[in-house]
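Q: For a teaching session next week I want to show students how multiple molecules come together into a single three-dimensional assembly. I've collected the sequence lines for a complex. Could you give me the predicted structure tokens for the whole thing so I can convert them for display?
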Amino acid sequence: MNKILIIIKREYLTRVRKKSFIIMTIIGPLLMGALFVVPVWLAQKEDQEERTIAVIDETNKVDNQYSDVHGLFYKKLPETPYTKFEYLPNTPLDSLRKNFSNSKYYGVLFIPSNVVTSNRAEFFSSKEPTIDVKMFISESLSKEIQKQKMIAEKIDVQILEKVKTNIGVNTFVWDASGAEKKSSTELAMGIGYISSFMIYIFIFMYGAQVMRGVIEEKTSRIVEVIVSSVRPFQLMMGKIIGVAMVGVTQFMLWIVLTIGIVFIAQGVMQNKLGNESVKSIVSQDVMTGAGIQQAQSVKADESGMGEMKEIFAGYDPRKMTKIIFCFLFFFLGGYLLYGSLFAAIGSAVDGEADTQQFMMPITIPLILSIIVMISAIKSPDGPIAFWFSIIPFTSPILMMARIPFDPPAWQIGLSALLLIITFVGTTWLAGKIYRTGILMYGKKVSYGELWKWIKYKS
Amino acid sequence: MEIFSARNIVKRFATQTALDDVSISVPEQCIFGLLGPNGAGKTTLIRIINQITAPDTGELYFKGERLRSSHIGMIGYLPEERGLYKKMKVGEQCLYLAQLKGLTKNDALRKLKYWFEKFEIQSWWNKKVEELSKGMQQKVQFIITVLHEPALLIFDEPFSGFDPINVNLLKEEILDIRKKGATIIFSTHNMESVEELCDNITLINRAKCILDGNINSIRERYKSNLYQVTFHGRFDKSMVKLSGDFEFFEEKKSEDKYSARIKLTNGLTTNELVSALLPAGELCSFNEIIPSMRDIFINVVKETEE
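A: Of course. Below is the structure for the complete assembly, covering every listed component.
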């Protein structure tokens, strides 16, 4: 037992003292913060390109002949500082067709004469228009046609403006005693999304470190000296646990640093982005990630900032502790499960290049977990989320995604228990492969070979 | 007194038998040679002695007790394929490996200080292993092997890859360590070192023991009644008496010398041979040819393969 501690200490110190660890510790939270801010910032920037769109409005045609009257949409389409319309009355579409890219127009909006009944317009350009432009045109046209229809039905447009409502829903969660806590679905989604992603990344990152360490010991041949002093299983466990502690250390440092950065960033963003609340940034990122299309940009919500602070403050510290504790548990459980398999692979090959054939069965459940998570997070209590959060190979990622939504304790317990049993199993299995593999060189190892190693008696 | 013995060791791998009823007996403070062609089973036996793998059947005894894991601290091992963590510092690595052998940190530091001073390599303490040349790494590996003052040392092909200076150094250290009370087992192809250093040997081929015992007795056993004689000046064969009782080989004649190998075919004593030759010329030197370990090795292996 003491020897395992010596090994753990060495594995831990060698990695924690590396420059790459220190750099990752600092960069990590910065990257996380950037992951939040950059997509939104980019989305805003994009739309500052100046565009002029030619409009050929044939709603003024009578019996397929041009008339002197202007089309329905003449100078009626709303513009932005960057996107403008230029109306070309009584101009045939074909006259613009040739050498269009040399003209000053971004594209041509062709409104057919029957647009009000057909509900279809056409856009011509030399390049595929961006989705924002397409949506903007569609919205502009729709709004204008709506207006026209209302006028035809004799509805006063001004009354309509007064009547428009945008209801916000504040969510509260009742706990068993009936006490009430303000909650936020977006925040829960955000936390579930991010933490399960982090588990995914950590498992890969640290599992790979274990594998590389095993391969290094094998290729440098030092493993033979070491196993004359300790049993192979002790070396394997020492390495797995040592690397686990590196991961936990890294995570703890990140939490501390990220909290610091978020508080600074909140203050900065409050000034720079004006009304754009932190909440909406979180929502946008999460929604985009979850594939929910946003037809409109999120409305600036003046109370949003205050709401955000309120939610963070009111976010039950017990719940936060629960989330952090569950993160650590499922990270460690998932890591121990996969880490031992990574160790086994490392022991079976003669170099990193040979690991490919064995990596597949390990990476597939992990990647599958993330793909499932992205949609399951929208329905955290649904059957897909449930099953994937119980099956040990996918549970670390999926259960973590569900935790902010307070799944029933028995489900968490069952998932945890199965995870523990499974990682004990994979560790035992890996141990058998490891103790034979580390001394075996030059053999091209197949799955059949691995199976034989598992059957060797101790 | 016997410090180590292996009895009736059998070890099979999936496709072949590596050791088939192999037994060795190593007396205390002996330098014991483990010989054999490549693939004979030597490394497998060595791994079994180091408890890296276990035999299928057979027993191992160390200092009179069944071999068990607590003996690890009393055995030192330098494998054939040697290696160190490249990116780890020399001093730190020696400490780590010493602690794995069971030394406390302070003990290890003390002993390392002694060895580093002895080899005059104190300046390497903070260097990374990859900064050392191969010869320097070999010295470090040697120190790691002997640091915990084991009673039994095992070297697998210790001279392979060592330059001649380090080979000498290693030989001296082996003798020195034996003088201090340790026992040494080493496997090698380097037959000169076997003759120089070993007291006892075991020759393994194709998983079986085909020869073992004390080196001198073995060489005596394989004597083939060959003698090397040199005469000054002329040699008159016709003057040799009892010529039916021996054969001449490899005769070399020159201006001032005549030499030949003589094989006795009939039970003549050495004295009788000398008397028979004396009349033929001026005897300059007369030697019994005792077979080298290399020759014995080749012959015995060939014999068993036929």
